[in-house]
Design brief:
The chain has one domain. The protein has 9 helices and no strands. With about 210 residues, the protein is mainly α. About 35% of the residues are buried. The longest helix is centred in the C-terminal third of the chain and has 29 residues, at about 180-210. The chain has helices at about 5-10, 25-30, 40-55, 70-95, 110-120, 120-130, 135-145, 155-165, 180-210. The model is unreliable at about 1-5 (pLDDT under 50).
């Protein structure tokens, strides 16, 4: 009589798990020959899928001794990883003249529903406001437009959280992550960024394969 397998036993890892949609196509086009692109572009297009996979696969940190505040660090890290994947790809996409792609700090991901959810997170919004460097006019303008509901750009939010996390000032309390629901909201933001990246990568592969 067959015994019931656990979820862990049933799972078989595949090298394409959580890779960008166009990754197999990218590998194929590299073998067949692509349009001439710079060494830097090749390096970044080859490196991006692995940063994307790490960000998409990330679910948590194994540090049981930390306690409930761990969910805050997990939330911040998820967004941090997603934004660094974006950073790895976007410069190359811009140089390849991918449609509707601008320089890194000029792109927007408009999502009113998600933006409204974050606007209600008073602790996080105040934390971001207090930690925008005085000289960073770009972030100040983005922030003002966001809190006034003049913009629903959530890519700005990801950048702000990424900076807070990278600079070591992000905490569960200051990030407003009190429970699993708050953590899920951060994960939703990360997956929104990754969805944008996945589509952008596919367009890059179309470009190097000869499509306009």
């Amino acid at each position: 009589m067959a015994t019931k397998k656990t979820v862990t036993e049933q799972y078989v890892w595949n090298k394409y798990d959580n890779m960008p949609t166009a990754y197999k196509d990218y590998q194929k086009k590299l073998k067949e020959g692509t349009k001439r692109i710079s060494t830097d572009a090749k390096t970044r297009l080859s490196r991006f899928p692995y940063r994307y996979r790490l960000a998409k696969s990330f679910v948590g940190i194994d540090a049981k001794e930390v306690g409930n505040t761990l969910i805050g660090y997990e939330a911040g890290m998820k967004v941090f990883l997603a934004y660094t994947a974006y950073e790895e790809l976007i410069g190359t996409a811009y140089k390849l003249r991918v449609e509707n792609i601008k320089k890194k700090n000029e792109n927007k991901i408009q999502d009113k529903e998600l933006a409204d959810k974050f606007r209600k997170k008073d602790v996080l919004i105040t934390f971001i406001q207090l930690n925008i460097p005085h000289e960073n006019i770009y972030l100040k303008e983005k922030f003002e437009a966001f809190i006034k509901c003049e913009s629903n750009d959530v890519l700005f939010l990801a950048l702000a959280i990424r900076n807070l996390y990278a600079h070591g000032v992000f905490t569960a309390t200051k990030g407003g992550v009190k429970n699993l629901k708050d953590k899920v909201l951060y994960f939703e933001l990360a997956h929104t960024i990754l969805f944008f990246c996945d589509e952008c990568f596919s367009k890059c592969i179309d470009k190097i394969g000869g499509e306009k």
